[in-house]
């Protein structure tokens, strides 16, 4: 089973990092295909906790070749900070390969991200401020700088000039900031060239050849389905395709090569940043989920918004991504709740919707229609087999499975690497 895509089914932070790490020893390649250092993946190995942003989580597994695909936007300063941080902790990062077609995030993207958010005022997205949106905007506008441009100083200078031309007018005249000089950017970039040279390659070819040799490749998504620029809650989304389709365009591997689509989904829901969230809780249950689930952002430290499980979103994700297997995470967080509400459909101005409404206004008005399921009080963190779970936890999982559009193949019962119940082999 050589190629699998792993994505988030909700609004991010479902535990994708842990799920990737779990499969680590069976993988030859882990490919990040979208986003950049807006992602924050926590992996807990024994007493060690790692927070990965730009690097694929597979980098923590010896033997795995981590790949940054063409669909990613790379902030080289952050890249080397993260690599050095891992090296200092004894992680071998020498195998990392980066697509020559990946776009760069520079100082002007970070600046523009922050100033545009400020100008949006009440309409702001609540971005991570890492320059993600402006870097993708340049890519689409055909004024982006790619990894391969770094290796020809003349080309690099021309491209930076082209990109800064318009931006400096914007920065100075509209946003009241200082102009950025071409030299400043070019010098910053050139400082990394020698170290980047051995890493940058044709990763699409590399991965194609790996699949031809029947090696196992996991495509690890950043962000999640509801943050996807096409299929998420636009405009409250990130600027890339976080759904399974993004794995294709973001890596250069064809759709008929993909054997499995694994979606990671929490046993409840969280969201960071602005935008609609039908099951959001504003009462003590919201605080309960935040505290029990330690729901604070891995990247920005922001408190995550929390709410109950939303089955229409799970079904939507199953459909948009072609999910073959769900990994249900954080079931342990629900321990101690007497009756657990689950949204089974929405009420939109008196009309029932069983699916996520296509109209943004309808989704903003969607009120969850809840069903309640009996909870459990036993500590479940030691469960390794489905039968180890209390009867009510088992039926909660089965109920979610029945309404979510695909089978649940693994269940997270704690943050640790081994805190997992496996029902079906995710790569078998
Ligand atoms: P990602 O962005 O999808 O990789 O997820 P994050 O790492 O941002 O957030 C998930 C958080 O939940 C991390 O702190 C994980 O250590 C933690 N986590 C993952 N799975 C479980 C689980 O099954 N139970 C509990 N209690 N924590 C989990
Ligand atoms: P992982 O991979 C949760 C959210 C931001 C904001 C919106 C746009 O850890 O699941 P951006 O900086 O991408 O332009 O911000 O997307 N966002 C995330 N929320 N988890 C993430 O990544 C996110 N990456 C971006 O909060 O609302
Ligand atoms: Mg995260």
UniProtKB/TrEMBL annotation:
InterPro entries: Adenylosuccin_syn_GTP-bd, Adenylosuccin_syn_Lys_AS, Adenylosuccinate_synth_dom1, Adenylosuccinate_synth_dom2, Adenylosuccinate_synth_dom3, Adenylosuccinate_synthetase, P-loop_NTPase
Names of required cofactors: Mg(2+)
Active-site residue list: 13 (proton acceptor), 41 (proton donor), 139
Record's keyword annotation contains Nucleotide-binding: yes
Gene Ontology CC terms: cytoplasm
Leading EC class: ligase
GO biological process per UniProt: 'de novo' AMP biosynthetic process; IMP metabolic process
GO molecular function: adenylosuccinate synthase activity; GTP binding; magnesium ion binding
Protein's job: Plays an important role in the de novo pathway of purine nucleotide biosynthesis. Catalyzes the first committed step in the biosynthesis of AMP from IMP.
Complex and partners: Homodimer.
Stated name of the protein: Adenylosuccinate synthetase
Gene that this polypeptide is encoded by: purA
């Amino acid at each position: 089973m050589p190629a699998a895509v792993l994505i988030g089914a909700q609004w991010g932070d479902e535990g994708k990092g842990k799920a990737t790490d779990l499969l680590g020893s069976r993988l030859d390649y882990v490919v990040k295909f979208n986003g950049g250092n807006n992602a924050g993946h926590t992996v807990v190995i024994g007493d060690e906790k790692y927070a990965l942003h730009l690097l694929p989580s597979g980098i923590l597994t010896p033997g795995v070749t981590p790949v940054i695909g063409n669909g990613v936007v790379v902030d080289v300063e952050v890249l080397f900070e993260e690599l050095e941080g891992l090296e200092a902790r004894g992680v071998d990062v020498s195998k990392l390969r980066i697509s020559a077609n990946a776009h760069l995030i520079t100082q002007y993207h970070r600046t523009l991200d922050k100033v545009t958010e400020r100008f949006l005022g009440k309409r702001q997205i609540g971005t991570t401020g890492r320059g993600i949106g402006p870097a993708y905007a340049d890519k689409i506008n055909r004024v982006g700088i790619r990894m391969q441009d770094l290796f020809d100083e003349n080309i690099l200078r021309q491209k930076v000039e082209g990109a800064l031309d318009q931006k400096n007018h914007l920065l100075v005249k509209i946003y009241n900031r200082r102009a950025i000089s071409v030299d400043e950017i070019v010098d910053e970039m050139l400082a990394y060239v020698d170290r980047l040279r051995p890493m940058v390659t044709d990763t699409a070819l590399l991965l194609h050849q790996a699949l031809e040799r029947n090696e196992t490749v996991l495509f690890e998504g950043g962000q999640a389905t509801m943050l996807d620029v096409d299929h998420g809650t636009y405009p409250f989304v990130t600027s890339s395709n976080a759904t399974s389709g993004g794995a294709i365009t973001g890596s250069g591997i064809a759709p008929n090569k993909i054997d499995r689509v694994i979606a990671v989904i929490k046993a409840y829901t969280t969201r960071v940043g602005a935008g609609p969230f039908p099951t959001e809780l504003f009462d003590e249950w919201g605080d309960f989920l935040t505290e029990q689930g330690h729901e604070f952002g891995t990247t920005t430290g922001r408190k995550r918004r929390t709410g109950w499980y939303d089955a229409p979103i799970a079904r939507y994700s199953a459909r948009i991504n072609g999910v073959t297997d769900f990994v249900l995470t954080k079931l342990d967080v629900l321990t101690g709740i007497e009756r657990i509400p689950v949204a089974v459909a929405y009420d939109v101005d008196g009309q029932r919707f069983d699916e996520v409404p296509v109209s943004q206004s309808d989704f903003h008005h969607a009120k969850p229609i809840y069903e309640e399921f009996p909870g459990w009080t036993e500590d479940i963190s030691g469960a390794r087999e489905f039968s180890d779970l209390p009867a009510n936890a088992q039926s909660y999982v089965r109920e979610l499975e029945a309404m979510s559009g695909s089978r649940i193949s693994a269940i997270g019962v704690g943050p640790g690497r081994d805190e997992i119940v496996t029902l079906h082999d995710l790569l078998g």
